[in-house]
Amino acid sequence: MGKINDILSPFTAWKHLVNEPLTVKKPLEREGADRYRGFHKNEIDKCIGCGTCEDICQNAAIDLVPVEGIETKDGDSGLRPKIDYGRCCWCALCVDICTTNSLSMSNEFKWIDEDADNFLFIPGADDKPWNNSEKGWKKPDYNLYDPNRVDMQELHPEDRDKSFIEIVQGYSKEQALKEADRCVECGICTATCPAHMGIPEYIRAIRNDDLEEGLRILYDTNPLPEICGRICTHKCETVCSVGHTGDPLSIRWLKRYIADQNPSERFKEILGTDTIEQNGKKIAIIGSGPSGLSAAHYLALMGYSCTIFEKLPLAGGMMRYGIPEYRLPYDQIDKDINYILSLGVEIKYNVTIGKDNTLDQLHKDFDAVFTGTGLHLGRSTRIPGTEHKDVHFATDLLREISLGNEIPVAEKVVVIGGGNVAMDITRSMARLQNQKFGKVNVIATSLESEDIMPADREEIVEAREENAQIIPGWGPQSIEIKNDKITGLHVIKCLSVFDEEGRFNPKFDENIKDFFEAEMVIESIGQGMDLSYLTDEIKENLKMDNRGRIIVDNNFQSSLEWLFVGGDIIQGPDVIHGIANGHKAAIGIDNYINSKK
Amino acid sequence: MKEIIDRLQELYPIGDFKQQNKSLALITVDKDKAVDFITRLKNEEGFLHLSIITAVDWLEKNKFQLSYLINNPTTKNSFVVRVMIDRENAEMFSIHHLWEQAATYQRELKEMFGIDFPGSPGVDKPFILEGWHEIPPYRRDFDTKNYSEETYFPREGRTKNVPAEYMKQKLYPDE
Amino acid sequence: MSKLFNIKEDRSLFPEKNEQGKIDIDLSSHKYLKLWHGPQHPGITGNMSLEITLLGDEVMDCETHVGYLHRGFEKLMERRKYIQCFPIVCRVAVPEPDFNEYCFASAMEELAGIEIPESAKWLRTLVLEMARLASYLMWIGGQAGAFGQGIIGQWTNYLRDSMLDRFEELTGGRVYHMYIIPGGVRGLLPSGFKQRMEENLKFIEQMMKDVERVMFNNAVFKKRSVDMGIIEKDWIYKFGITGPNARAAGVPLDVRKDNPYLVYPQLDFEAVTATHSDIYNRADVRRRDLLMSVDLIRQIMAKMPQKGEIRAETPNVLHWKVPAGETYSKAECTRGEYGYYMVSDGSEYPRRINVRGPSYTHAVSLLEKMIINCNLADIAGLMVSLHTYPPEIER
After folding, report:
1. Are residues A433 and A486 in the same domain?
2. What secondary structure does DSSP assign to C79-99, as a single string?
3. Labelling A270: which of A91, A172, A459, C88 has CA 20 to 30 A away?
């Protein structure tokens, strides 16, 4: 029976004879699935050309190429991915890792062409039929790198608002490794950093736990890592590619981690600066701020004998006398400066050029002069009442605090200004009020609304944590004085700060008014420079622009070839520009002296 | 699995015991004792199934590591028996008499790593490669990228830009 | 008389075997014919070739040649970061890439000490069973085709295509799925997936009844496959035979049962076995295994969590340093024990990855033995019945 069945059973296949065929009738019209990994798409304006897609592509199918109409600028390399479909394996890892989420894939998989070289195009820039396709592979719901920043340990507001001890406690090794792991090594940040630090490289050194190598990378471009690791304005973090869909890397804290972990007594050994061959040339540097120290450091490495002339009793300039200790402890400033001094740099303290010595004399005694005297003069709003004795400049008060002198503290204080200096004085005042009265009553008010306040975001947040009030968006009108005592500040609503061309041109609504009670007003709306040490003779030969700034070339050389100028009086104001200026000026000085031979 | 090793420890110099997971343990045995040891595991301890024989090139230590992965189908446990041999004139005793497929593995190792197994059937015959004149390609010192660059040619129309360098060139070429 | 093949004619004319059990072949005697079967031949699975020596229609000697698809993946992986190996591994065995992805990912996760989320485990199991199903469907067409039944291949390839449609919507790719990423999987089930899958499964079951009637209850197929190409039970360990080839001989080797991985312990199934590993029984074991896959897919879809995390947190894949160590991760593929032996030296690049494909033993040492005395016309059927994939031999 079985055998007969085996002969008859196969004939049951005939029952399918009348069935419709199951083939796909028009394969060229078949649509890919919603998730299909087809030809690439790229939102070209969202893409920043970070090249992470290229890095992950195991087939080397992606090249980054310039695209017409896309400019290279801060945070955008100006390059865009070009994909070679002779190599692409459609794995879509490039989409999964895309830092800006601009790259995706359409569900289109049909493209017939006689010329194989056409299968090489720039998604988003080249016009393709699938550019507007909604379907296709998009970044899935997971991350191939961690988009979230490792939180920094900070003192709790209650533990910090009465004293000047450092708030930010720095990363532990585990935290630093975790944070460093998030870097995609695109290097977009390097261009934005004024000193063009090797950021991806030193972050890699952290990952490899080679902190000595990390320190060497830091000192290549920045001789003040402890300081910069704390108070750098970290422009790099604003362009970090990882920041586009997550938190940017904590580049500043990672730099601090490297500097903190290397013991200062080993710096010379690690950096290989035990012996430096001297060339016998002498350079004078006016001001021991970031630019002066940076210039001195790089000049000393080249064998120059450098002498810094400092007006105040200690070195550091604004870093010591402008920035409160809770942000930048003095021992950390000393760590950086002591290393520079160990290279043979000499500092003459309490010497004011123009009073104790003259620029002409320096010109005679030294082969070249660098000046980086900074912005130490306060600027006034000049509203009625600013001439009162209880109206102060923030820079003056901050300097007095650092010098250890007692400063006047009132129960109610208003600070005018929205930058980092305003925050510094606001938070310093809050601490002093807490010490003196046991409570805080300080208001900082700025023209700028909160979203465009120039101060760092964390400064504003932390100031509020310390019970200071930050009230942005008001224009100061006048200081009310009764019985020779300040009673408060009249303000009107500020509608906009900049005009359409981006110029400073504030607009106000005079009908919206407010009044902030105060017994003391502090102005912090910017600083001015004191160039009184320039003699008339020098001034005559020195080219200056119409705003009184000295004109310098790319090497920070002024029109007087022996005089180099840098720091806040040229660029900034901030530390990292000063460092970069000092470094470039050092190279400029070296070139200048070599050309004289 | 530790129990087996403890029992055999007296007879064979077994080192580096590591219980990698529930059913897999790693051990290292001297070259001279390895075949004897594997035979013992097969015949007395029920490790009847040979999964793979492969090699790892520890170029920096000048050693090859041979890994024999053997499995006991009853207890479902496996051992990776590791044998370190010299990289120069690399040679190992054949186990083709224990498992039929061993000869194929050994033939491949000869071709890809240059490890000889004297007496293994067909060990000198090419297995995967044909007309190969370079050093055995799975050795660490054979550079595949270099080989492909020398042998093939790049596609025209490809250019390479590194974002950071390109930005330097565009934004601050002189610094 | 050959033990392997039911040859009944007078064999007195055939040469005597020498001491090694082989015959002395003198090609100049004009008695023998040397023939290359493959690498391009419809009766060969994939790209490999058999150098056979025939006496009449009967194979006297055979040597297998591989290397036509050698891409050096193991070496390439040593020069790539771990994540960059992920798109490569699936290419080791084309019809079932997922086993490669799973073994690679799980070896890496074991070394890195990463536990993947629960839903990822279920989804991984699902795609592994889908791959098994799709691969068997393709194989069954090959087995039937080798014995002249073209229609079966047409049916089952359509069925496989319907599975590829499901793969396409779940993973974004039809053939190379690149779905089981180290740390988890790359997507949840799309909406309506289960329903469409159930329709596919129903159709597969229905068509498999037809396949049973037309292929398995078929006098011609039985004539050519019953008692043909027998694998003796005592060869199993001697040759390292695994999977259906071993199970058909009554040795229940199934990694899913022996060393359970993913969610297999939570699924209800038994290793499919037979007692007599001839071509017919091996085919039948695979057919039943196929139907078991259908059942397993149903079980998975009924029990799996509806949502949840799909990928564990891992270090940044661009510089993932897997801790130094070595491990062997295995899974049961359609052909048997599939394994990845991974050695890490603690760097960003794997030190060594060795792929164990079951065909390595089945298609070389075993086939070379079994093919002796086989009729030329039966070679294709014999080879397919061992279910060999050349790319996993040469990688």
Report:
1. yes
2. TS-HHHHHHHHTTSSTT-HHH
3. A172
Nearest to C135 by CA among C338, C339, C331, C290: C290
Nearest-angstrom CA–CA distance, C160 and A552: 74
Asked if omega into A140 is within 30° of 0 (cis), the reply is no
Based on the domain organization, do A495 and A384 belong to the same domain? yes
Q: Return the DSSP state at C358.
A: T
Q: Report the gap between the CA of B169 and the closest CA in chain C (Å).
A: 26
Does the CB of B154 have a partner CB in chain A at under 8 Å?
A: no
User: Chain A: nearest CA to B139, how far in angstroms?
Assistant: 21
Check CB contact under 8 Å for B161 and A72: no
Return the amino acid letter for B123.
Answer: V
- Tell whether A329 and A224 lie within a shared domain: no
The pLDDT assigned to A1 comes to 46
Of all residues in chain A, the one with the smallest CA distance to C166 is A33
Question: What is the pLDDT tens value at each position of chain B, 175 positions in all?
Answer: 778 887 777 777 888 888 888 899 999 988 888 898 899 888 888 899 999 999 999 999 999 999 999 999 999 999 999 999 998 888 899 998 888 889 889 999 999 998 999 988 888 888 888 888 888 999 999 988 888 888 888 777 788 888 888 888 888 887 7
Our CA-based measurement puts residue A123 at a distance from the nearest CA of chain C, in whole angstroms, of: 19
Ranges of each domain in chain B: 2-156
B2-156 CATH? 3.30.460.80
Residues of A whose CB is below 8 A from C218: 6, 9-10
Q: What is the predicted pLDDT for the residue at C285?
A: 92
Instruction: Judge whether C179 is closer than 8 Å to chain A, CB to CB.
Output: no
Strands A62-66 and A79-84: antiparallel
Residue-number span of the structural domain to which C222 is assigned: 76-356
pLDDT higher than 50, residue C2: no
Q: Which residue of B has its CA nearest to A85?
A: B155
Chains that touch A (3 or more CB pairs under 8 A): B, C
The verdict on A148 touching C (C-beta cutoff 8 Å) is no
**A477 and A371 within one domain:** no
Tens of pLDDT, residue by residue over A481-536, are 888 888 888 989 988 888 888 888 888 888 888 899 888 999 988 888 888 888 88
C151 touches chain A (CB under 8 A): yes
A578/A508 same-domain check: no
Which among B85, B91, B92, B76 has a CA at the least distance from the CA of B22?
B76
A51 contact partners, CB below 8 Å, separation of at least 6: A64, A77, A79, A81, A186, B162, B163
Q: Is A499 on the interface with C (CB under 8 A)?
A: no
Phi, psi values for residue B161, rounded to 5°: -130, 135
Residues of C with CB under 8 A from a CB of B: 66-67, 70, 72, 74-76, 78-79, 110, 235, 237-240, 242, 251, 253, 258-259, 325-328, 330, 337, 339, 341, 343, 351-352, 354, 356, 360-361, 364-366, 369, 394
> Which ranges of A165-310 does DSSP label H, i.e. alpha helix?
173-181, 188-192, 199-207, 211-221, 225-231, 235-239, 251-261, 267-271, 290-301
Q: How far apart are CA C28 and CA C26, in angstroms?
A: 5
Number of independent structural domains in chain C: 1
In tens, the pLDDT along C152-211 reads: 888 898 899 999 999 999 999 888 999 999 999 998 899 899 999 999 999 999 999 989
Looking at the fold, whether A336 and A295 belong to one and the same domain comes out as yes
Structural domain of A340: 276-376+531-596
Which CATH number belongs to the domain containing residue C349 in this structure?
1.10.645.10
User: Widest CA span of chain C, in angstroms?
Assistant: 71
Distances (CA, A) of A399 to A389, B149, C107: 18, 63, 61
Domain boundary among A270, A288, A308: A270
